[in-house]
Amino acid sequence: MVLMTLNLKSKTFIKIKSSIMLKVALPIRFGVAITGGLIAYFLVLALFKIHTNPIFSLFNGIITGFGIYEAIKYYKLSKGKDFEYSDGFSVGVVTGFVSTILFTAFFALYAGNLNPDYLETLLDRWETTYDTSLGSVVIVVALMGFATSVVLTLSFMQLFKQSWNTKKKAE
Length: 171
Description:
Largest sheet: none
Mean pLDDT: 86
Distance between the termini: 53 Å
Structural class: mainly alpha
Helix content: over 70%
Radius of gyration: 21 Å
Number of strands: 0
C-alpha cells in the first residue's frame, strides 16, 4: 500500500515536472531558434549593404511569427486535450520575449561595437536635428519585438483555441 502511494505520487510529480519543463524549455528553445533566424537574416542583409533600409525589417515579423506559431503548435500537440488558452498564450509570449531579448542584445553589440557607423547610416534617412543615441534605438528595437510578440501570439491563439460554437443536432 505504501509502495503504491509512493508510486502514484512520483508519477504525479513527474507529470507536473514535465509540464513545467515543457512550458519553460520549449519557449527558450524556439526563442533561440527565432533569434538565430533573425540574426542570419540581418547578416545576409548586411552582406548586401541593405540592412539600413527599414522596409526589410518587415520580414522579421514573418520569422518571429513562424517561430511563435510552431512553438504554440508543438505545445498543443504535446498537451493534447489538456491544452488551455492561457498556457498556449504564455508559451507564445515567452517565446517571443526570449527571441526579442536575445536579438536586441545582438543588435546592441552590432550597432555599438561591430559596426559603429551603422546607427549614423540607419538614421541618415530622417531628420538630422534629432540627437538619437544607441540606447534609444535599442529600446525601440526591444519595444517593437515585444509588441510584435504579443500581437502575433494573440492572433495565433485564435487559431488554436477551442471553439464554443455548438454543433447542430440532426433533425
